[in-house]
Amino acid sequence: MTKNVLLSWSGGKDSALALYRVVHKSEYHIKALLTTLTAGYDRISMHGVRRELLEQQAHSLGLPLQILTIPQNCTDEEYDSLMRETLEKHLTQGVTDVVFGDVFLEDIRSYREERLAEVAMKGVFPLWGMDTCQLAQDFLNLGFKAVLVCVDTHKLDGGFAGRTYDENLLADLPPGIDPCGEHGAFHTFVYDGPIFHHRIDFQVGETVLREGRFQFCDLIPRG
User: Fold this and answer.
1) Cα dihedral 179→183→188→193 (10° resolution)
2) How far is CA 113 from each of CA 19, 28, 101, rounded to the nearest angstrom?
3) Model-level pTM greater than 0.85?
4) Cα end-to-end span (Å), the chain
5) Quick one: CA dihedral 179, 207, 67, 53, positive or negative?
6) SS3 218
């Protein structure tokens, strides 16, 4: 029996790999990509990518986009309430599961499963338990293309922001930094790959340090 699912979409490599692993499976029908944007900035939360580029991703993937807008300085309670409202709407439309690109952070998975259980939904984790070095290589070998859009400068040099996610970048990562950016060292924007119908066209803009910690690289849509 085919399950109707949402896919938690950050625009980055983990969610792209999760989508790649489920998009052709007959057991899942993806109803929409679920993405959180921050009000005022109108950009993907934590990643800082413009809405226009997010919409171009969804168009290239051929999937509907469900945007959840949260306020700036959103509290956990506010986020949970807004997310629950969105999930309940999709539950009435037959959605039973949400797909995530999480790999090994047990606390995050537990949090997601607990929140989903409150609305009688379940989580699907197609990348769970996989070796992140292998995942990074799989991502590149499959032909995905990505760029680093946010770097936590408490964990990684801010100069990595704006760099292409490739073999050279992986070789330059210092010891202790996960190649998939687990633990939040960096976030990415995927602009091409086997699940895209066409490449997302953009140019790399300026980098800005925010909150004294996060180095964001602005990606500017072309055309």
Assistant:
1) 50
2) 19, 18, 13
3) yes
4) 42
5) negative
6) strand
